[in-house]
């Protein structure tokens, strides 16, 4: 074990608010921790194209994207697991047949289905409202999601994962049945209140990606810290030596973490870094 830590940060609700705003205290915490010799990496469901310039410009030592499908350390890609072109075609056709709007998450962009902007608006407002966003009812799809491309090719070979709007929880259950070769999950809420389904590469999660990144850094898992706010972060919590849940986190994530800090917009990142003596 060393004094230098490797810190893995979820993005939405951890570094940024759910309206994509980055508190100054979060920027300062990340930059101060790196100046103190710690490594700080994003570990997010986002693909690289979803990161706006103001997020990238904070400065990071690497990125885990697509909930573990993509691992980049010190500007070097050390792992990238894609959905196959055939799987992508099947997913697109399945969603179209069911009338479900979706987007393909690639490092080259978020390629959305024909009516995604309109269909996603109420879902994203509900999602933001559940997370305590004050002006959630006024949010537009493009306020919440960066890098969305409309009218692009939907049969692709560069996809990390796919998210689709649930018309009911049955869509998720049917996806599990129809895509046994995929990792199928939900997000936007707990259990049957989920708003979106997603499909990605089987046997991929944030925990596996964290181990790949730590090995690439030549570091030790005993020196790792994970911070997040959602159920998808729990494997990362379990893999890392220390885990922190944000104040806006769901019940399961809070229960799985070593401690709970304040909300992202209430200096949650800064307070956690101070608690852990990273700054």
TrEMBL record:
Q: Which NCBIfam families match?
A: Cof-subfamily
Q: PANTHER family under this entry?
A: PHOSPHATASE YKRA-RELATED, PHOSPHOSERINE PHOSPHATASE
Q: Name one GO molecular function term.
A: hydrolase activity
**UniProt keyword Hydrolase present:** yes
Task: For this UniProt record, give its keywords in alphabetical order, as a comma-separated list.
Answer: Hydrolase
Source organism of this protein record: Collinsella ihumii
Q: Which InterPro entries match?
A: Cof, HAD-like_sf, HAD_sf
List the Pfam families: Hydrolase_3
Identify this protein by name. Answer: Cof-type HAD-IIB family hydrolase
């Amino acid at each position: 074990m060393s004094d230098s830590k490797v810190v893995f940060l979820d993005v939405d609700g951890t570094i940024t608010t759910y309206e994509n705003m980055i508190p100054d205290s979060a920027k300062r915490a990340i930059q101060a921790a790196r100046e103190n010799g710690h490594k700080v990496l994003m570990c997010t469901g986002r693909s690289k194209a979803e990161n706006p310039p103001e997020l990238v410009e904070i400065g990071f030592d690497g990125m885990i994207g697509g909930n573990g499908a993509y691992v980049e350390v010190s500007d070097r890609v050390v792992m990238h697991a894609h959905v196959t072109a055939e799987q992508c075609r099947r997913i697109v056709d399945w969603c179209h047949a069911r009338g479900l709007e979706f987007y393909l998450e690639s490092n080259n962009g978020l390629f959305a289905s024909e009516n995604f902007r309109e269909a996603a608006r109420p879902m994203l407002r509900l999602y933001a409202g559940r997370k305590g966003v004050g002006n959630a009812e006024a949010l537009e799809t493009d306020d919440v999601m960066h890098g969305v491309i409309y009218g692009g090719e939907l049969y692709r070979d560069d996809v990390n994962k796919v998210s689709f709007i649930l018309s009911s929880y049955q869509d998720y259950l049917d996806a599990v049945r129809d895509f046994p070769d995929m990792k199928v999950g939900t997000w936007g809420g707990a259990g049957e209140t989920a708003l979106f389904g997603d499909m990605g590469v089987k046997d991929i999660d944030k925990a596996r990606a964290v181990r790949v990144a730590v090995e690439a850094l030549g570091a030790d898992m005993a020196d790792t810290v994970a911070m997040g706010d959602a159920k998808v972060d729990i494997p990362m919590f379990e893999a890392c030596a220390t885990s922190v849940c944000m104040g806006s986190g769901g019940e399961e994530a809070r229960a799985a973490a070593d401690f709970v800090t304040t909300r992202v917009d209430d200096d949650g990142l800064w307070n956690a870094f101070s608690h852990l003596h990273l700054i």
